[in-house]
């Protein structure tokens, strides 16, 4: 996770919602948002993207990015006009080969009017030529484009695409990616998936990456800088590609001692979550000043600060668990964030037990006991936390407590069948908290509405009786802090100093 630099204020551009006369009978503009109540203008309506082809050139010294995005989509309505989410400067748009009119609107809408209206259900190819200096662009008063001394990084949640490619920016519209980036010789470009080729010409080296399974826009990542790249394979034969900034200083050893365990941890997670869902895995540690990590698909983003106190395999477990819970199975709406974070946190608890640093039960007891009933912690509902609390600690810790309560209620056999079956059952798709409850009920054969309501949807501390029923908080007095606790908490955000 994930920190925007400044929280968004009240939404502008309400006029976008007003009906606009269609340019042909029955043809209507696509909505400027995909319909997520947390973020009304994120994503767009009227079409569904299947593939992004991004051909980019980046100059680290000046932060100048130029690119051509070729977007393959299909219309989902009779479409007179549609939006992409984007902040850089556009010079030309073509739709199905013909020049299209375009303008900007709201905080991050690129509004495109094709020469000919687009009938519902037809394939559409959109080509956007653009350039700009991403670090000079903001929306709602914030940026998530991170400059580094030797380049830049796009990795944030829920927003990072706006600064480097035009998209339908919401997890509901997943697509495959080819990302090809030219950078000055001696500099590397890192993205998701497998490295298809590198070539050098006239002082520029081009890196071409492919992410061949459906991927949410916020899980697409780009890092440019001077990196050491290491390679390996998991026991199951999945290629591992990791990258480390050559400028990590004192954090270099701890970063490598953590991220180089990626293959081992993928093998271990496979035992709980089923086969790894993608054809490549790894992580990268650029020399950013941020404090978080993010589950960017197949290539996890780690801040150097994650390793300032020494190695931390727990954060590697968290981000790799997301490859199943969040990346393979993505949320339907941002209110479903528990599907991602509750389970990535619970994977850390399982790792803690594996490492002999505290059992899942001890961690659950500790979370339950260490927050008194009047603690604001319990006012956050992990099942629908609201946009301001989407990444609150409670989504993680109370979220994992809910997973432990589920385990206690259905028993280990059903619980581990659910844990492994969910990614298989919803592979490469989207799902909600309600879908998860229905799945857990189907596998366990037990009604679970009351349990989900108590642990995920009530703005109060579950009563001791509920905790005892769930076997959470068996310890009568405040339990000792498990040894793994500090590393687990450091996953949320490592603060300055
Ligand atoms: Zn997470």
From TrEMBL:
Its EC number is 3.4.11.2. SUPFAM superfamilies: Leukotriene A4 hydrolase N-terminal domain (SSF63737), Metalloproteases ('zincins'), catalytic domain (SSF55486). Keywords: Aminopeptidase, Hydrolase, Metal-binding, Metalloprotease, Protease, Signal, Zinc. It holds the Pfam family Peptidase_M1_N. The keyword Hydrolase applies. Its cofactor is Zn(2+). Residues 1-24 form the signal peptide. Residues 50-219 form the Aminopeptidase N-like N-terminal domain. It catalyses: Release of an N-terminal amino acid, Xaa-|-Yaa- from a peptide, amide or arylamide. Xaa is preferably Ala, but may be most amino acids including Pro (slow action). When a terminal hydrophobic residue is followed by a prolyl residue, the two may be released as an intact Xaa-Pro dipeptide. It comes from the Bacteria. One of its GO terms (molecular function) is aminopeptidase activity. CDD domains: M1_APN_like. Residues 310-455 form the Peptidase M1 membrane alanine aminopeptidase domain. Belongs to the peptidase M1 family. PANTHER family: AMINOPEPTIDASE N, PROTEASE M1 ZINC METALLOPROTEASE. This is Aminopeptidase N. It comes from Streptomyces gibsoniae.
């Amino acid at each position: 996770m994930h920190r925007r630099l400044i929280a968004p204020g009240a939404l502008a551009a309400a006029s976008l919602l007003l009906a606009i006369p269609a340019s042909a009978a029955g043809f209507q503009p696509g909505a400027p948002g995909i319909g997520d109540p947390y973020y009304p203008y994120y994503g767009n309506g009227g079409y569904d993207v299947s593939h992004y082809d991004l051909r980019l050139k980046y100059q680290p010294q000046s932060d100048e990015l130029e690119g051509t995005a070729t977007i393959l989509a299909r219309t989902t309505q009779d479409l007179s006009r549609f939006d992409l989410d984007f902040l850089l400067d556009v010079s030309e748009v073509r739709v199905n080969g013909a020049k299209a009119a375009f303008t900007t609107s709201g905080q991050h809408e690129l509004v495109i009017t094709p020469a000919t209206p687009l009938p519902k259900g037809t394939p559409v190819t959109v080509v956007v030529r653009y350039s700009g200096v991403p670090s000079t662009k903001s929306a709602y008063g914030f940026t998530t484009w991170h400059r580094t001394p030797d380049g830049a990084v796009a990795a944030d949640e829920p927003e990072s695409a706006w600064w480097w490619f035009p998209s339908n920016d919401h997890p509901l519209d997943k697509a495959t990616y080819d990302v090809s980036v030219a950078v000055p010789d001696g500099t590397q470009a890192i993205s998701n998936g497998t490295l298809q080729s590198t070539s050098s010409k006239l002082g520029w080296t081009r890196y071409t990456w492919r992410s061949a399974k459906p991927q949410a826009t916020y899980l697409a990542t780009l890092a440019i800088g001077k990196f050491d790249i290491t390679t390996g394979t998991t026991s199951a034969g999945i290629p591992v590609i990791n990258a480390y900034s050559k400028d990590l200083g004192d954090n270099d050893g701890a970063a490598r001692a953590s991220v180089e365990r990626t293959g081992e941890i993928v093998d271990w997670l496979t035992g709980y979550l089923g086969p790894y869902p993608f054809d490549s895995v790894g992580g990268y540690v650029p020399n950013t000043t941020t404090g978080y990590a993010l589950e960017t698909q197949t290539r996890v983003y780690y801040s150097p600060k994650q390793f300032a106190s020494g190695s931390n395999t727990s954060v590697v477990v968290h981000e790799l668990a997301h490859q199943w819970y969040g990346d393979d199975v993505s949320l339907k709406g941002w209110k479903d964030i528990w599907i991602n974070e509750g389970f990535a946190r619970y994977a850390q608890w399982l790792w803690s037990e594996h490492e002999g640093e505290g059992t899942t039960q001890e961690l659950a007891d500790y979370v339950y006991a260490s927050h008194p009933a009047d603690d604001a912690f319990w006012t956050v509902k992990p099942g629908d936390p609201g946009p301001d609390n989407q990444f609150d600690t409670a989504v993680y810790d109370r979220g994992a407590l809910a997973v432990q309560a589920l385990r206690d209620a259905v028993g280990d056999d059903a619980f581990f069948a659910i844990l492994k079956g969910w990614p298989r059952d919803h592979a490469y798709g989207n799902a909600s908290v309600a879908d998860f409850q229905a799945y857990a009920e189907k596998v366990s054969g037990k009604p679970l509405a009351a349990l989900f309501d108590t642990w995920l949807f009530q703005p109060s501390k579950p009563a001791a009786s509920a905790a005892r029923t769930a076997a959470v908080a068996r310890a009568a007095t405040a339990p000792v802090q498990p040894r793994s606790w500090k590393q687990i908490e450091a996953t949320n955000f490592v603060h300055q100093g």
